[in-house]
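User: I'm curious whether this sequence folds into something compact or stays loose and floppy. Could you predict its structure so I can see for myself?
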Amino acid sequence: MPSYRERVAWPGWFYLVLAVALSVGIFGTAGALARHGVGVGAGVALVALLAVAAVLWRLRYVVLEFGPEGASFGFGRPGRHVPTDRIVSAEAEEYSAARYMGWGYRMGWEPRDRAYSVIGCGRGVRLVFDDERGAGRSSSPVAIRTPPSRP
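Assistant: Here's the prediction. I'll summarize afterward.
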């Protein structure tokens, strides 16, 4: 059981804009296929729309957990776990979308530097930990609303 858990969702307006853009694109493609005699256009569009909706449902928020066993983080549910003995540091910091070129799962300029973030979160926790493969140190800022104290 984690001693600290935070879940940060994408803002609601983001889903509306994304849903409209995807619907226009997918159903526009279905209409173009139908005009050219491809009768399965609407079915293909519906399957594509459902697949995109399933992916978005999985990525709808970032989760960060700290507990006696270590730290866990990821989109949807924590997908990455770092045991306590491999954590070098966990510090609150400002999240720079410019440094990581946006939001979501992003790669930084330095090797093994990854970020997990959502639009609107300007703060996060930078976890620095020893890589499980012994390839050096990894660093992952996880964008959250209220940075916790160090575990």
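Summary: Confidence is low (pLDDT under 50) at residues 146-151. The chain has one domain: 1-151.
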